[in-house]
Amino acid sequence: MTDTTQHKHETVTSALLARDAVHRSGLWEPDVVYVRGDGALLYDAEGREYIDCMAGIAVASVGHANPRLARAVAEQAERLIVCPQNLGNDTRTAFVDRLFEHVRPPLQRVFFCNSGSEANEAALKWARAATGRRRFVAAKRGFSGRTLGVLPMTWEPKYREPFGPYGMEVTFVRYNDADELRAVVDESVAAVLLEPVQGEGGIHPAEPGYLEAAREVSADVGAMLVFDEIQCGVGRTGTFLASEAYGVAPDMATLAKGLAGGVPIGALLMTESVAAGMPRGGHGSTFGGNPLASAAGLAVLDEIDERALMPRARSLGDRLMAGLRDVGGERVREVRGRGLMIGMELKEKAAPVIAALRRAGVLTIAGGATVIRFLPPLVIDEGQVDAVIGRVADVLRS
Ligand SMILES: Cc1ncc(COP(=O)(O)O)c(C=O)c1O
């Protein structure tokens, strides 16, 4: 890039950000403008290229500008966009058929909505309907969403506390501590909600035996076990649901993020008996299950299967994890994760390292104060994984 074109582009970026600043909510202050993507790569308004290990927080599962996904959405838009869930729709039916080729019994029913928070809210509501109880158990470091219905289940005090008190009772337990679960889950509990791999909390996979214990403890007292698979589901950890690898079946599971590759979607999966607990018309969503999201979901499942993205998540996840572990060094406390859901815990604040990585052309995101999360599209290739490892090594050495 010549000096003149560089200057012109910088002007484009500053102008866009200045316009953006006039009306934005004030929650964030972006300083880069992204304009284009291609697989695991993103490009900013200055033409700079980034390897995207954030994927819109585990959303761009099949990569940016995925041709099959783009075609499916465009074709559906030309045919039919609007068709709510109380009306039948051919594309939705095709998507549901394919979804339940991946989701195993006893999960047999699905309610569609438009985001992760909505899917978790639906789970809480179905749990209340199915049990007639009102108390919930959630995990410390867990993240369930930020809408008022699920905020009481989100651990991080700075998100939760300013908006209380809440109309529901939630007990937080230490994640991976089966004894604590046994101590607090009793006949008053409607549901226990757990992420099989905690995401926002810093990438903490369930330890062997923990989800099994949660299953047993919940079943013993008639409480629902809900797995929040919003971040870890849809193949990211190498199996369609992360909980499959543990061999534990919940009463409900929630999906969102990667399920439609970027088109807004949320899904509550549940057993026959849980579904039967909600009266007809007891819940709903105007946009849930719309044909556009269904077409996108169908394309995502086709991509996952035909390009073998789940085994790929395992092998490339192993490669990335091994590489990051080798980087090691005195600034790194631990590298952990499953598949392409990896956290590098530092002995220092993650934010400056994340900023330096971005300057080096790698996008990552924090998980808590000291963890760098790596959640790339499942289509990332070996060369890109190796480049990420190399740039992390350079940044940590600098
Ligand atoms: C595990 C988990 N649950 C729920 C949510 C909330 O999803 P959404 O932002 O789509 O409402 C998130 C989002 O990061 C998440 O990671």
Describe what this molecule looks like in 3D.
With 398 residues, this protein is α/β, with parallel strands linked by helices. The chain is 39% helix and 19% strand. The chain is built from 13 helices and 17 strands. The strands form four sheets. The chain has a seven-stranded mixed β-sheet, with helices on both faces. It starts with a helix and ends with a helix. The structure holds pyridoxal-5'-phosphate. The site of pyridoxal-5'-phosphate has 15 residues, from helix 5.
Helix content: 25-40%
Radius of gyration: 21 Å
Largest sheet: 7 strands, mixed
- Report the total helices: 13
Stretches where pLDDT is under 50 for at least 5 consecutive residues are none
Hetero groups:
pyridoxal-5'-phosphate
Task: Please give the alpha-carbon distance between the first and last residues.
Answer: 26 Å
The 3D shape can be described as globular
Main-sheet strand order equals: 4-12-11-10-7-5-6
**N-to-C SSE series?**
HEEEHHHEHEHEHEEEHEEEHHHEEHEEEH
Structural class: alpha/beta
Total strand count, please? 17
Hey, roughly how much beta strand do the residues contain?
15-25%
Q: Summarize model confidence as the mean pLDDT.
A: 96
Short description:
The protein is an alpha/beta fold and 398 residues long. The protein is built from 13 helices and 17 strands.
Architecture blueprint of SSEs:
Blueprint: H1 3-23, E1 34-38, E2 41-44, E3 49-52, H2 55-58, H3 67-79, H4 90-102, E4 107-113, H5 116-131, E5 135-139, H6 157-160, E6 169-173, H7 178-184, E7 189-194, E8 197-198, E9 204-205, H8 210-221, E10 224-228, E11 252-255, E12 266-271, H9 272-276, H10 291-306, H11 309-327, E13 332-338, E14 341-346, H12 351-359, E15 362-363, E16 365-366, E17 371-374, H13 382-397
Parallel strand pairs: 3-15, 5-6, 5-7, 7-10, 10-11
Antiparallel strand pairs: 1-2, 2-3, 4-12, 8-9, 11-12, 13-14, 14-17, 16-17
The structure holds pyridoxal-5'-phosphate.
